């Protein structure tokens, strides 16, 4: 059997746009759109075929079925997954050649592709997976570029002379983007004859070896099976073969059992007892479980990512027994010098299910409590009792906190907070607090309102930190374009840190095209804190136009990274253009922008929502330009999940590094 040696790249020819009248111009513009669409289709085809070829090279899977329709071959593998190989079409491009050398390394134009000086492997080596390069053509259509990190960064493809590899044909004669001359089933093999290769690739077809792990019904998020420390979880597997082997990471227990009466198989996985077991020598908390089946020399392999997490059946019992609930350096404990004292557990049997005064409350997940305090309280800690199930709290009044001695806090964890009854903000801070913490909550805010509203006299509102992480913030947007803020300060927020990470913020309405005029941190004319982090958040129709995403006097540091902005504001007006990330208020602090993408789904090109870095004056400390974030060519949620009703937004694998991971 011959290894894959070469495949062909595709490109396009640029053409000049020239016309004598409006009709000619319109025809040329339409022709340009068609050619651009064709180019995108060819590049996507190239990358899909590269992925398919790599999958076939990896081994560990047999082909169980082959189906061909109009030049596209759908191959079903023994783990139940499918890959596609597609014949190309005639073109007029200059075609470089990609090969895999005898060492299993990718080559382009005779040059081994390298990443940081290391050859890029097509065929994995022990302990290291192979890499599938991704290709694109420069915006001016001149040269090929390659990415080794799924499109996060790009570099030019160069030939043996160190010259950029052109994507433009000389125009003499035709060329083709076909990847193979022929494909057919010969006996027990699927045989592919690649273009410019003298010998074919033969891949075995074995229908009696199957190994497929069925997606777990519980604890499976974003492709990872989360299992509590010391707990066992199970899922079905479809398996067929003479020998079955199951392996897990160090410290994990993995087994496969088969019920002969039903012929059904079960995969059981037990996580290590606790986090203390995790040392490099003994265990990993996030890794792979592998199941293998074989018949003779044919093997089928299925893998699933697993992660050990802390599952707390009752935070109240943990707290009462002397345990510590630790959050980003904050320790919530009952006893000791910094103890919080007695707590209240609200259950279905509680005489009252109302919160009327300050304190620390744990809420069972099977009840709904209400917050009814009419006046300010000093401090509030509100925690959903079971870490895997959120507890609901309906707000009949805003949570007004009037801390007085810098030790009070507002901490909300694992709750479903419903602010739909409020005509104002969710929480008002009218005194000095030590911390404001919101973690792992669902929060509903009426349009035009704020999550946290701070109106203290001219001194710091929060002395330690403000942290919002893993929250799903739903904003009513039925009337469209109401100004809504997550954090709103009329004074300096804090000297220290504000962290806004791994959150989903979305405008929810009867129509997907309604939007919120949104701001994460509003402190116009006031000093911003020393450090601000805005990272790994997903924003859906949360458009920062008249108020930037962050506004205030920047003299410290702010870092934006791994952000996903999705827009579908279809109204024919210009008030959403452009959205901006920062108004530094004339300050000269340090700002950084990394891995930010924007996608505008609107079909109205005139009124598409743009996004640029700054409104107002660009800080002198920033060496770059005030650039616009380019619109992504494809919807990040294609092949992912976009569910406005449930607030679930999972991008495709290609965009997995952007946005929140809490789904």
TrEMBL record:
Residues 25-204 form the DUF4988 domain. Residues 22-56 form a coiled coil. PROSITE patterns: PROKAR_LIPOPROTEIN. Transmembrane segments: none annotated. Pfam families: DUF4988. Keywords: Coiled coil, Signal. The keyword Signal applies. The keyword Iron does not apply. Residues 1-18 form the signal peptide. This is DUF4988 domain-containing protein. It comes from Bacteroides finegoldii CL09T03C10.
């Amino acid at each position: 059997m011959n290894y894959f040696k070469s495949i062909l790249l595709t490109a396009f020819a640029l053409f000049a746009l020239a016309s004598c009248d409006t009709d000619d111009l319109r025809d040329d513009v339409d022709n340009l759109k068609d050619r651009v669409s064709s180019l995108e289709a060819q590049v996507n085809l190239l990358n899909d075929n590269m992925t398919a070829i790599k999958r076939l090279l990896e081994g560990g899977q047999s082909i169980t079925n082959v189906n061909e329709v109009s030049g596209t071959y759908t191959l079903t593998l023994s783990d139940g997954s499918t890959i596609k190989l597609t014949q190309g079409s005639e073109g007029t491009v200059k075609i470089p050649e990609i090969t895999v050398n005898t060492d299993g390394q990718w080559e382009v134009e005779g040059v081994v592709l390298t990443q940081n000086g290391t050859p890029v492997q097509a065929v994995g080596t022990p302990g290291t997976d192979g890499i599938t390069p991704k290709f694109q053509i420069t915006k001016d259509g001149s040269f090929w570029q390659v990415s080794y990190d799924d499109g996060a960064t790009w570099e030019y493809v160069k030939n043996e002379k160190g010259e950029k590899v052109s994507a433009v044909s000389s125009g003499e004669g035709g060329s083709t983007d076909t990847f193979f001359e022929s494909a057919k089933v010969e006996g027990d093999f699927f045989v592919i004859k690649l273009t410019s290769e003298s010998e074919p690739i033969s891949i075995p077809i074995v229908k009696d070896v199957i190994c497929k792990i069925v997606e777990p019904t519980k604890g499976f998020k974003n492709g990872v099976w989360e299992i509590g420390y010391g707990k066992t979880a199970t899922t079905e597997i479809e398996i067929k073969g003479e020998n079955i082997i199951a392996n897990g990471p160090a410290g994990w227990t993995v087994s496969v059992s088969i019920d002969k009466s039903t012929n059904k198989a079960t995969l059981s996985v037990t996580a290590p007892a606790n986090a203390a077991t995790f040392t490099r020598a003994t265990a990993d908390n996030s890794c792979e479980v592998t199941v293998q089946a074989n018949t003779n020399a044919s093997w089928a392999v299925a893998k699933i990512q697993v992660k050990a997490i802390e599952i707390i059946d009752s935070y109240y019992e943990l707290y009462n027994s002397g345990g510590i609930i630790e959050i980003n350096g904050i320790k919530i404990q009952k006893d000791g010098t910094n103890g919080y004292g007695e707590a209240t557990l609200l259950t279905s049997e509680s005489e009252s299910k109302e919160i009327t005064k300050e304190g620390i409350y744990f809420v069972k997940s099977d009840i709904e409590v209400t917050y009814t305090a009419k006046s300010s309280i000093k401090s509030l800690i509100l925690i959903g009792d079971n870490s895997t199930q959120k507890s609901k709290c309906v707000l009949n009044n805003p949570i007004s906190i009037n801390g007085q001695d810098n030790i009070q806090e507002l901490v909300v964890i694992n709750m479903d907070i419903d602010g739909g009854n409020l005509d104002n903000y969710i929480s008002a801070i009218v005194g000095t607090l030590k911390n404001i913490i919101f973690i792992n909550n669902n929060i509903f805010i009426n349009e035009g309102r704020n999550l946290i509203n701070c109106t203290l006299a001219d001194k710091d509102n929060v002395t330690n930190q403000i942290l919002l992480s893993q929250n799903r913030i739903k904003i009513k947007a039925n009337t469209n374009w109401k100004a809504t803020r997550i954090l709103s300060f009329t004074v300096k927020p804090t000297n220290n840190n504000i962290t806004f990470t791994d959150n989903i913020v979305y405008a929810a309405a009867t129509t997907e095209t309604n939007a919120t005029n949104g701001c994460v941190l509003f402190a116009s004319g006031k000093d911003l804190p020393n450090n601000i982090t805005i990272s790994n958040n997903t924003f859906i129709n949360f458009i920062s136009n008249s108020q930037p995403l962050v506004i205030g006097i920047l003299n410290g540091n702010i870092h934006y990274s791994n952000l996903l902005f999705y827009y579908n504001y279809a109204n024919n007006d210009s008030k959403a253009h452009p959205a901006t990330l920062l108004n530094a208020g004339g300050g000269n602090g340090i700002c950084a922008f990394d891995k930010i993408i924007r996608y505008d789904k609107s079909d109205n090109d005139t009124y598409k929502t743009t996004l640029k870095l700054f409104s107002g004056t660009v800080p002198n400390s920033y060496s770059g330009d005030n650039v616009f974030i380019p619109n992504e060519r494809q919807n990040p949620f294609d092949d992912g999940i976009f569910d406005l009703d449930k607030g679930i937004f999972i991008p495709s694998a290609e965009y997995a590094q952007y946005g929140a991971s809490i789904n």
